[in-house]
Amino acid sequence: MGTLVSLISALASGEAMAALQRARITAIIYGFAAIFALCGVGFLIGAAYIWLAARYGPLATSLGFGIGFLVLAGLIIVIHKLTASARAKRRVRRRQADMTAVGVTAALALLPALARSRGGLAAIAAPALAVVAYAIYRENTRPPPPRQGPEH
Predict the structure, then answer these.
(1) What does the pLDDT look like over 134-147, one tens digit per residue?
(2) pLDDT tens-digit map of 3-29
(3) 147 — alpha (psi -120 to 50), left (phi > 0) or beta?
(4) What does the alpha-carbon distance between residue 109 and residue 102 come to, in Å, rounded to a whole number?
(5) Distance of CA 16 to the CA centre of its chain
């Protein structure tokens, strides 16, 4: 309840609006910095082109820069494709964790109502017993691990 009171008082005092204003100004400043950084990189690439064109000629330099940028684009795509499966697995694990958290929260929210109702204890205990029984069954039906060491 205390966090709700502090949130309401922060909104009433205008602190939230000030934080939003600071965040907007920061985003604008970082946007300008990114634009200037990209311009700087562009001029450095242009300077490298001019220097290499004077040394090797404009055609060879243009071909070199074109091939270099195509290789960079290809590397980016290959790296993206190689990491796609790891990102998908991470999303699945996160989704499973979220669904588990939602399920546990829902079960804990329903627990008092189930405990008060008729047969509520059985409704709570039956799934837990089923999980334990399944774990025991799985443990006892696994094949034994292969033997290690010299055979006689």
Answers:
(1) 778 877 776 766 77
(2) 666 666 666 667 777 778 889 999 999
(3) beta
(4) 10
(5) 27
Predicted TM-score (pTM) of the model is: 0.50
Cα 40 to chain centroid distance, Å, stands at 31
CA 14 to chain centre: 33
Q: 57: alpha, beta or left, given left = phi > 0 and alpha = psi -120 to 50?
A: left
- 3-class SS string, the chain: CHHHHHHHHHHHHCHHHHHHHHHHHHHHHHHHHHHHHHHHHHHHHHHHHHHHHHHHCHHHHHHHHHHHHHHHHHHHHHHHHHHHHHHHHHHHHHHHHHHHHHHHHHHHHHHHHHHHCCCHHHHHHHHHHHHHHHHHHHHHHCCCCCCCCCCC
CA dist 100 and 107 (Å) reads 10
Joined together, the tokens standing for residue 60 give: 């060879």
